[in-house]
Amino acid sequence: MTRKPVEVAKRRHTRQVMVGKVPVGGGAPISVQSMTTTKTADVEGTLAQIYALAAAGVDIVRCTCNQIEAAEGLAQIVPRSPVPIVADIHFHYKMALAALEAGVAALRLNPGNLRKPNEIKLVAQEAKDRSVPIRIGVNAGSLHPELYEKYNGATPEALVESAMRELELFGEVGFDQVAISVKASNVPLMIESYRLLSETTDHPLHLGVTEAGPPPGGLIKSTAGIATLLAEGIGDTIRYSLTADPVEEAKAGRQLLEALGLRERKGLDLIACPSCGRTEIDVIKVASEAQAALEELHLPIQVAVMGCVVNGPGEAREADLGIAAGRHKGHLFIKGEIVAVVPEDEMVEALVREAQKIAEEGIEARLAAADPKAVIEANKDRAELLLDKGDDANNSSVTIEKIRRKTKES
Ligand code: SF4
């Protein structure tokens, strides 16, 4: 019997906007976004990055449109891009109009930087005429000075009011194809701002921790903010803002959604034990080599690398495929069932080979093709390892004896 997957949260209802062919909000799969770091005027360089981002799993890519050369670049990029392109607009409303002319799928406007109501309404009118959505991208660091003063700083109320004011201006021209973000680099502020925003409006929300910095800190901050909200059912599209190759942002966004069960697995999910005194191999090295080799296959598969056969196959029984180290041998298992025993130096190779066969033939067929002698060999190897290492591979009994002696002395 197939088990019903555990759901992380019931998603809050939002209305839907279309970013090109990608639906955002209204129960659509949560999309992953990233932003190019090239000059948008460099058409080939920008397209190369967009293709790399699409291969890493992004659904939508944003490019800056800060000058006329960038808008002209967009006119060439948009028709050749595999994913919808959003133009990022800060100070110049004419750049927004130029980007619309270039055919972008959406605009991002920063209300803190583009402030004149007549210019904002002009852009909204043009977007409405072309059925192109706009994201109101409020940022704590560039909040409208008037709101900063009113709230004595960038508070959740200030960020949400900034978005609502812009929404009102859009409303004056009858434009409502709008997504909203209220990003901050301070994670608690970001979380509280989105919570308040989701209580205030049903427009789809774009989540992100702005200026999160380089990994691993940037990854941790972004995950803390985005995952907390997703686990509350808040958020329709996400972006990791890392000081790194944007492909890292794309991978992180994708992996977060897959880890939370919010998107189907598209690539590899490698799980590995942290290793301990029982292992006879360098688990970190084998896991990294396996990760690199298996990623190349682009298969939606969960693979386990376990440091020993004592606990490995059992603990990783949910994985599609795995390997556990025995005494100079690797025990290859599928869904926790031993299917082969291979020499230690062929562990990674065996994983790659089996992953390919699983992709071609399916799990059931590969289980049926298991080597019948493998279980006997694996059991013998496991028994020998247990005999060698005993039940107390980390020598905790010696430590416990020392503790007892110490506490008796005092
Ligand atoms: S007991 Fe085995 S599987 Fe568990 S951490 Fe130690 S080496 Fe890894």
TrEMBL record:
<dbReference type="InterPro" id="IPR004588">
    <property type="entry name" value="IspG_bac-typ"/>
</dbReference>
<feature type="binding site">
    <location>
        <position position="276"/>
    </location>
    <ligand>
        <name>[4Fe-4S] cluster</name>
    </ligand>
</feature>
<dbReference type="GO" id="GO:0051539">
    <property type="term" value="F:4 iron, 4 sulfur cluster binding"/>
</dbReference>
<dbReference type="GO" id="GO:0141197">
    <property type="term" value="F:4-hydroxy-3-methylbut-2-enyl-diphosphate synthase activity (flavodoxin)"/>
</dbReference>
<dbReference type="InterPro" id="IPR016425">
    <property type="entry name" value="IspG_bac"/>
</dbReference>
<dbReference type="GO" id="GO:0016114">
    <property type="term" value="P:terpenoid biosynthetic process"/>
</dbReference>
<keyword id="KW-0479">Metal-binding</keyword>
<keyword id="KW-0408">Iron</keyword>
<keyword id="KW-0411">Iron-sulfur</keyword>
<comment type="function">
    <text>Converts 2C-methyl-D-erythritol 2,4-cyclodiphosphate (ME-2,4cPP) into 1-hydroxy-2-methyl-2-(E)-butenyl 4-diphosphate.</text>
</comment>
<dbReference type="InterPro" id="IPR011005">
    <property type="entry name" value="Dihydropteroate_synth-like_sf"/>
</dbReference>
<keyword id="KW-0560">Oxidoreductase</keyword>
<dbReference type="GO" id="GO:0005506">
    <property type="term" value="F:iron ion binding"/>
</dbReference>
<comment type="similarity">
    <text>Belongs to the IspG family.</text>
</comment>
<dbReference type="InterPro" id="IPR058579">
    <property type="entry name" value="IspG_C"/>
</dbReference>
<feature type="binding site">
    <location>
        <position position="308"/>
    </location>
    <ligand>
        <name>[4Fe-4S] cluster</name>
    </ligand>
</feature>
<keyword id="KW-0004">4Fe-4S</keyword>
<dbReference type="Pfam" id="PF26540">
    <property type="entry name" value="GcpE_C"/>
</dbReference>
<feature type="binding site">
    <location>
        <position position="315"/>
    </location>
    <ligand>
        <name>[4Fe-4S] cluster</name>
    </ligand>
</feature>
<keyword id="KW-0414">Isoprene biosynthesis</keyword>
<dbReference type="GO" id="GO:0019288">
    <property type="term" value="P:isopentenyl diphosphate biosynthetic process, methylerythritol 4-phosphate pathway"/>
</dbReference>
<feature type="domain" description="IspG TIM-barrel">
    <location>
        <begin position="14"/>
        <end position="253"/>
    </location>
</feature>
<dbReference type="Pfam" id="PF04551">
    <property type="entry name" value="GcpE"/>
</dbReference>
<feature type="domain" description="IspG C-terminal">
    <location>
        <begin position="270"/>
        <end position="356"/>
    </location>
</feature>
<protein>
    <recommendedName>
        <fullName>4-hydroxy-3-methylbut-2-en-1-yl diphosphate synthase (flavodoxin)</fullName>
        <ecNumber>1.17.7.3</ecNumber>
    </recommendedName>
</protein>
<comment type="pathway">
    <text>Isoprenoid biosynthesis; isopentenyl diphosphate biosynthesis via DXP pathway; isopentenyl diphosphate from 1-deoxy-D-xylulose 5-phosphate: step 5/6.</text>
</comment>
<dbReference type="InterPro" id="IPR045854">
    <property type="entry name" value="NO2/SO3_Rdtase_4Fe4S_sf"/>
</dbReference>
<feature type="binding site">
    <location>
        <position position="273"/>
    </location>
    <ligand>
        <name>[4Fe-4S] cluster</name>
    </ligand>
</feature>
<dbReference type="GO" id="GO:0046429">
    <property type="term" value="F:4-hydroxy-3-methylbut-2-en-1-yl diphosphate synthase activity (ferredoxin)"/>
</dbReference>
<dbReference type="InterPro" id="IPR058578">
    <property type="entry name" value="IspG_TIM"/>
</dbReference>
